[in-house]
């Protein structure tokens, strides 16, 4: 099974996808004049702007739902495996794909907002919606929807569950079979509760878990601050093949850095637009900017905290393409959460390993919940014209089964299956957002023009020549009434200024 999975990954994660992820991010960054730098202040402001409605969630809740998917085992185990197979330089390429990927995240999440729909009283959107409406290619939209249901419902949950099982076994000696049963019960409670329960759960747990982990990692880094300059130099030299010990794996540093970077921050993968489309905002670019910032939170903050901690303590391994050891700092432990638990335990005896296990539980569990929401949104897309409620029920059972299976299987198999899911979605989505880029850039230009006039931007697709934005055109009146009742109308007075 491992050989089959590795062979498939060899095709999907060919150099073409690696360079496509980096190249598209660079192209979008240039086209938007590096919005990820120009609009940082606006991104932070928008995170806390707006409120939820009966149909949609707030900007912050949408951000939390997205981070629930982004901040997961990739931030702990993913960083460890990237360093193991790509050397310390892989961390630099994770940063690079995050920085450039922020522009890709803006494009895809803006498109998700433009072409979202209101289905059964809830906002739904994502690549399947903008592919069909923006490109007029229903077969392509269905291909993405089916691939995403399969990836998020079957392939990806096992990665998160496997790391939970491994970390709890290391810290508390809990049998993975017991962990699997517990995860299935908890998942059932959350996913049978609907999108509102998912949003509430994510907005409560995600900020707490991410902040707590970053603080503890920063404490460890601060206690060893004298080693940080040397670590940064090692990352820089390894990233460009200038380090004597890791120069031979330059190509692997790029490949593993990009692969694990995309897995962690999901920029361009097509997962982010699902949650961002659920936000109740007055202009698509608002949520696009918020989602661009979420990439920074995921990779530049959380992944960096993990990477610095491993490299400062020296508790990591690096192996060459032939499996030969290039550096051994933690013999006898497989690449994954065990590295991070050992590193933190060495700094905080009696506490470190348990803390990582608890943090990873929350990281990974919220990611599994986010996967369910993404897969369910694509079922909602398929079910728009013909109601097939059994599909949603089948998804819930499949996701719970995949979680149980992943918990008790080997890490290599779980990660291999996850990489297939990420790669399939990335290929399909990146091509789509390249073809639809003009719409996203038109939205950004319109947003900036209204901002320059001191207005709170409002989206009118008909004025911009954007077609098939059904929610914004055909359903504007209905949603305005809902917003007016709550005291937050979409349509501001012409002279209304930004407070």
UniProtKB/TrEMBL annotation:
GO molecular function, one term: amino acid:sodium symporter activity
Database matches in InterPro entries: Na/Ala_symport
Membrane topology: Multi-pass membrane protein
Principal localisation: membrane
Region named Disordered: 478-499
Cited NCBIfam families: agcS
Protein name: Sodium:alanine symporter
Organism: Aeromonas sobria
């Amino acid at each position: 099974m491992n050989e089959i999975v590795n062979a498939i990954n060899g095709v999907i994660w060919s150099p073409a996808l690696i360079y496509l992820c980096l190249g598209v991010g660079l192209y979008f960054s240039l086209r938007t004049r590096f919005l990820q730098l120009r609009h940082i202040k606006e991104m932070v402001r928008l995170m806390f702007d707006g409120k939820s409605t009966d149909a949609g969630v707030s900007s912050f809740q949408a951000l939390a739902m997205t981070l629930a998917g982004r901040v997961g085992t990739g931030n702990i185990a993913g960083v460890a495996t990237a360093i193991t197979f790509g050397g310390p330089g892989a961390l630099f390429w994770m940063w690079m794909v995050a920085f450039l990927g922020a522009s890709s995240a803006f494009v895809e999440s803006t498109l998700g907002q433009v072409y979202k729909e209101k289905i059964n009283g809830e906002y739904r959107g994502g690549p399947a919606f903008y592919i069909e409406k923006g490109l007029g290619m229903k077969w392509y939209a269905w291909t993405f929807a089916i691939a995403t249901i399969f990836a998020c419902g079957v392939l990806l949950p096992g990665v998160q569950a496997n790391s939970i099982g491994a970390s709890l076994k290391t810290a508390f000696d809990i049998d993975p079979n017991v962990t699997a049963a517990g995860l299935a019960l908890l998942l059932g409670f959350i996913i049978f509760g609907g999108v509102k329960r998912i949003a509430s759960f994510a907005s409560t747990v995600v900020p707490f878990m991410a902040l707590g982990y970053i603080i503890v990692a920063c404490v460890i880094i601060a206690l060893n601050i004298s080693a940080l300059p040397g670590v940064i130099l090692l990352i820089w030299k390894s990233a460009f093949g200038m380090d004597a010990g890791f120069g031979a794996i330059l190509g692997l540093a790029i490949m593993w850095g990009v692969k694990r970077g995309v897995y962690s921050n999901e920029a361009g993968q097509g997962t982010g637009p699902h949650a961002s489309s659920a936000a109740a905002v007055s202009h698509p670019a608002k949520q696009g900017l918020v989602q661009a910032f979420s990439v920074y939170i995921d990779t530049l903050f959380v992944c960096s905290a993990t990477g610095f901690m491993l490299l400062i303590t020296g508790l990591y391994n690096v192996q060459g393409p032939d499996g030969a050891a290039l550096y051994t700092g933690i013999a006898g432990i497989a690449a994954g959460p065990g590295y991070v638990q050992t590193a933190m335990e060495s700094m905080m005896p009696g506490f470190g390993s348990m803390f990582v296990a608890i943090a990873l539980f929350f990281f990974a569990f919220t990611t599994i919940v986010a996967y369910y929401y993404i897969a369910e949104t694509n079922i909602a897309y398929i079910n728009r014209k013909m109601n097939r409620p059994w599909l949603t029920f089948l998804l819930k059972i499949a996701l719970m089964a995949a979680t149980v299976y992943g918990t008790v299987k080997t890490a290599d198999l779980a990660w291999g299956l996850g990489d297939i899911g990420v790669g399939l979605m990335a290929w399909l989505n990146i091509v789509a957002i390249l073809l639809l880029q003009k719409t996203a850039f038109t939205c950004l230009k319109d947003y900036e023009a209204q901002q320059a006039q001191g207005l709170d931007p409002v989206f009118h697709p008909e004025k911009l020549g954007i077609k098939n934005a059904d929610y914004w055109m055909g359903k504007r009146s209905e949603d305005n009434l809902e917003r007016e009742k709550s005291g937050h109308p979409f349509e501001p007075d012409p002279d209304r200024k930004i407070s």
